[in-house]
């Protein structure tokens, strides 16, 4: 946890934004894997962590925006709890650690919410993403949960700009991110299974923290954007996309991607595609700054990719017109990046559109650009990922070629030699500073020369 004052200040700022009503923030509970006593690894709700900091199941936080009071509800540990899972501090002590003096049992929580409902007060809740959470809230308020737009907007406003303590935590977490990705580079040799590398990486995240921040994407079939299968045996000159993140004990996430050549050396064709993606990544790093729309950074990456593919003869025509028509999305069919913090896709449980878009910028319906998670103007303290890529997806190529989609900008006949290429993605995490952007942590080897040197 951070200091108790950190959480008290956050709750005060939330009250100032919400203004009135009762704010209900339930923590998560243990979730059974296949029977009640055999549970998945516990992961606390990120909003509860942000405002209360306690990393234990069965707790609920309530903030009264009218009185300014915060309350913590839960059970005190029993002897049975002590026997099976160890001794825990009393509820009152837990509350003191996050700056709260008023505590109560689950029965008292029921009474508190029931009284607020009877008085016709507004009950602010966030969109529940677990069934047990949805049922708990429905039982408390006596009706189907309906998310509060006021609370969503307030939480997004607060959590979007990272505090100094959060930036320090993210910076420290990047040390493990560097370790797991360079470990993958060292292990990517002919005769090694993808699962051996993924398993070693996950083991390191458990050694140094809370584990992986999302299921590891590691595959020589890098053209499948979220490929979680790790069954392939690696061979010389395979190209492996490794998209993986670490979660610290305080549950702050990292998210980085590197693309590595099995055997330690890129082929000429691989270098050509790789360097285009790297140029797109660096262009965003150099141009991202406060006041710039992240959507424009996405289009900057698309422009660099289009220019590069034109030089290889895979695309043609006017670059600006090609990007406007979405022709680049045959090769770059996803968005440039997303926010990152307590979640790897930070705050996505509130609704992706509420996090990455606002009154100024609306989500596109165009293929590729529609998948852009983050489009709004950058501000100092934002933490975003920068992950352009180029992929050769045979099924998508065939579909576009058969339909003649963007044939004015794509040389389909030249794509035959790339059908088995796979993909390249290069992802860094950027902190938006007062004047620009910087890569968080020591930058993981990223140039062709750096990667080959590390693998040697």
Report on the structure:
It is built from 15 helices and 17 strands. A hairpin with a 5-residue loop joins β4 and β5. It has two domains: 4-160, Creatine Amidinohydrolase, Chain A, domain 1; 164-455, Alpha-Beta Complex (Creatine Amidinohydrolase). The strands form six sheets. Strands 6-5-4-1-7 form a five-stranded mixed β-sheet, with helices on both faces. A three-stranded antiparallel β-sheet has the order 9-10-12, with helices on one face. It is α+β, with helices and mostly antiparallel strands. α8 packs antiparallel against α9. It has helices spanning 4-18, 46-52, 79-85, 91-97, 106-118, 131-141, 149-160, 164-187, 194-208, 268-287, 294-311, 319-325, 352-356, 394-403, 448-455, and strands spanning 22-26, 32-35, 38-39, 60-64, 70-73, 102-104, 123-124, 211-212, 217-219, 239-244, 246-247, 256-261, 383-386, 389-391, 423-425, 428-432, 437-439.
């Amino acid at each position: 946890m951070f200091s108790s004052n950190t959480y008290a200040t956050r709750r005060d700022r939330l009250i100032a934004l919400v203004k009135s009503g009762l704010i209900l923030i339930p923590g998560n509970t243990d979730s059974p894997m296949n029977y009640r006593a055999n549970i998945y690894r516990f992961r606390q709700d990120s909003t509860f962590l942000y405002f209360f900091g306690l990393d234990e199941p069965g707790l609920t936080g309530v903030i009264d925006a009218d009185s300014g009071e915060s309350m913590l509800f839960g059970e005190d540990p029993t002897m049975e709890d002590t026997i099976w899972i160890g001794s825990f501090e009393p509820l009152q002590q837990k509350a003191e650690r996050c700056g709260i003096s008023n505590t109560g049992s689950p029965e008292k929580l029921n009474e508190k919410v029931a009284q607020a409902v009877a008085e016709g007060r507004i009950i602010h809740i966030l969109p529940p993403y677990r069934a047990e959470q949805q049922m708990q809230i429905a039982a408390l308020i006596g009706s189907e949960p309906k998310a509060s737009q006021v609370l969503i907007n307030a939480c997004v406003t607060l959590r979007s700009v990272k505090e100094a303590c959060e930036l320090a935590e993210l910076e420290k977490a990047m040390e493990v991110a560097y370790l797991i990705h360079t470990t993958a580079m060292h292990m990517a040799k002919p005769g090694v299974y993808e699962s051996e590398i993924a398993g070693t990486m996950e083991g390191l995240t458990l050694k140094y923290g809370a584990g992986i921040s999302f299921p590891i994407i590691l595959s020589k079939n890098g053209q499948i954007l979220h490929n979680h299968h790790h069954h392939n045996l690696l061979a010389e000159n395979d190209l492996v996309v490794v998209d993986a993140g670490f979660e610290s004990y305080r549950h702050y996430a990292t998210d980085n991607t590197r693309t590595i050549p099995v055997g330690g050396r890129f082929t000429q064709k691989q270098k050509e595609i790789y360097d285009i993606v790297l140029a797109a990544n660096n262009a965003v790093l150099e141009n991202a700054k406060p006041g710039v729309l992240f959507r424009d950074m996405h289009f900057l990456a698309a422009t660099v990719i289009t220019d590069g593919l034109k030089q290889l003869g895979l695309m043609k025509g006017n670059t600006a017109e090609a990007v406007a028509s979405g022709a680049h999305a045959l090769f770059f069919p996803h968005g440039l990046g997303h926010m990152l913090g307590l979640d790897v896709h930070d705050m996505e449980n509130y609704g992706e559109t509420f996090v990455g878009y606002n009154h100024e910028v609306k989500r596109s319906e165009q293929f590729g650009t529609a998948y852009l998670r983050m489009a709004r103007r950058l501000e100092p303290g934002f933490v975003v990922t920068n992950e352009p890529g180029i992929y050769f997806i045979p099924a998508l190529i065939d579909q576009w070629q058969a339909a003649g989609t963007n044939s004015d900008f794509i040389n389909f006949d030249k794509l035959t030699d790339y059908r088995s290429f796979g993909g390249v993605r290069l992802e860094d995490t950027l902190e938006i500073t007062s004047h620009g952007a910087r890569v968080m942590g020591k930058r993981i080897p990223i140039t062709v020369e750096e990667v080959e040197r590390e693998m040697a």
